[in-house]
């Protein structure tokens, strides 16, 4: 999938915009049932080796499993692993889903887990988590009964106005241009994106 054309109105900034283009892997969700524990998914039962404890917040409330990405199922993306499973859990009992403005990287109201080696021997994985899931407040964004498979697609994307680097662009502070730019280069959807740094980004 190619990036959208740059409109004539932005011709004077075209080279600057083109320099921000990134390779991305976009997500398409489809309702599913009975996915394998190690498959990429939103909702359902997470991949969790028996020796690993299910994540809780500091108050002893289990977090809600949100999404897992099995990198063996994704198209290759520079800087990302070719194998392993990345998981995200959130505190659905909290109105901010675990977001802490004072300590944004403190994993209390959310948890990020990564398993480099994926074991497909189900006898070594947590398969029955109903006693824990019964304590989770499935208020949002995924209900207890919901489970979605993920289709991954390669795509190109220019920088969006919500990127912290956007204001560094020469037109980034032009209010009359930002709204129009936003309508053309939509920041919607879910994706993995490569970045030109030592870190990579997951945009959910």
Automatic annotation (TrEMBL):
Regions that span the bilayer: none
Name of the protein in its database record: DUF1963 domain-containing protein
Pfam families: DUF1963 (PF09234)
């Amino acid at each position: 999938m190619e990036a959208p054309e740059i409109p004539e109105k932005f011709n004077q900034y075209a080279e600057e915009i083109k320099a921000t283009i990134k390779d991305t892997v976009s997500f398409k969700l489809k309702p599913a049932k009975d996915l394998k524990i190690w498959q990429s998914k939103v909702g359902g039962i997470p991949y969790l080796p028996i020796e690993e404890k299910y994540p809780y917040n500091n108050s002893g409330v289990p977090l809600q499993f949100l999404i897992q990405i099995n990198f063996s199922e994704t198209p290759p993306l520079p800087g990302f692993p070719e194998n392993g499973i990345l998981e995200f859990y959130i505190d659905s009992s909290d109105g901010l889903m675990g977001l802490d403005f004072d300590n944004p990287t403190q994993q209390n109201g959310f948890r990020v887990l990564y398993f480099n080696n994926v074991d497909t021997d189900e006898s070594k994985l947590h398969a029955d988590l109903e006693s824990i899931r019964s304590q989770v407040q499935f208020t949002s964004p995924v209900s207890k009964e919901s489970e979605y498979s993920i289709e991954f697609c390669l795509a190109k994307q220019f920088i969006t106005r919500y990127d912290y680097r956007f204001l560094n662009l020469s037109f980034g502070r032009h209010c009359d241009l930002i709204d129009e730019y936003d309508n053309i280069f939509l920041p919607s959807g879910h994706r993995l994106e490569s970045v030109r740094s030592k870190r990579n980004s997951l945009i959910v």
